[in-house]
Structure formats: C-alpha cells, structure tokens
Amino acid sequence: MQSETLETATLGGGCFWCLEAVFQALDGVESVVSGYAGGSLPDPDYRQVCSGASGHAEVVQIRYDPRRLSFEGLLEVFFAIHNPTTPNRQGHDVGPQYRSIILYADDDQQARAREVMARVADQWADPLVTELVPLERFYPAEDHHQNYYRNNAGAPYCQMVIAPKLARAREYFHLHEG
Predict the structure, then answer these.
(1) Per residue in 19-45, pLDDT tens?
(2) CATH class as words, domain 3-172
(3) Helix axes 16-24, 71-80, angle to 10 degrees
C-alpha cells in the first residue's frame, strides 16, 4: 500500500492507551501513535501534560486508509468509546489532558467533524463538550506509551479499564484481534 493514500486523524477522549487499543483493532487503520496536542508547551513530556499546565490533551494520531474507513467512520467509533459530555474527565481520569477533542487537519475535516458532531449530539442527554480545533502540532508520547495495551495486556489498568472498553467496542464495530 502506498503511504500517500493514507489520511490522518488526531483525536483525544481520555487516556490515550484506551483510544489506541480500540483504533488499532479497527479495520482500515494502518497505525496509531499516542501523543500530545492542543496545548502551548513545545515538546511536552507525560509529566508536564499530566500536570495540566501544558494545555495539551492526551491524543492519538491515526493513519487510515479512506478507501476502507471514512473519517466519519472513525468519528462514529470515537464518539461511541468515550463520553463527549464530561468536561476534562473520562471515568476516573480527571484533568484537562483527558478532554474530548478533535484536532482537524484542514477545512474539509472540520466540516465533516461538525456534521458528525451534530448527528451524534442527539444520542446524548447532555450537550457535547468536544473541542473542535485546528491541529497546530502533534508530539508523539514517550516510547513506553506506544502500543501500551499490546505490550501490557496483563497489567491491572489494561484488565480493568482497557479490556472492557475494547470488548464493548467489539460488540458494535468490526474490530480485529491484536
């Protein structure tokens, strides 16, 4: 497959380990990189992002084949696997780094994201708080944060938080193992 046929989406909705595990299992996704975006501090590290002072969110950058999976399809999964109505929180993870955010690459992605947000808003009792902002810069997270679930499936966090989320996502979406 030629890399120029791939597109990129950058999304944040809580812990990037959870998002990474689900998107890695989605047909049409070629790669997922956990990282940071949406803040002002250049070259942040995990400690700085977790402090809340960097302004960055934990995000995943997804490279996908639009012939097999649309941007809208990615967003449908995104809105199904996190709560886009809780500001700065996903479950027990609290802070601005866990906010719901779509960082669009261009005007087309922005318009398509707005359409999906308008459509899914009716599925929630509370209003969406998902930020829709231009992607200024994406910073990959440290190596030990990459492929976290794949490398640590037996860890307590993976068993208690990620595995159930992945199982729920498998019920609704065509996910593959691994």
Answers:
(1) 999 999 999 999 999 999 999 999 999
(2) alpha beta
(3) 130
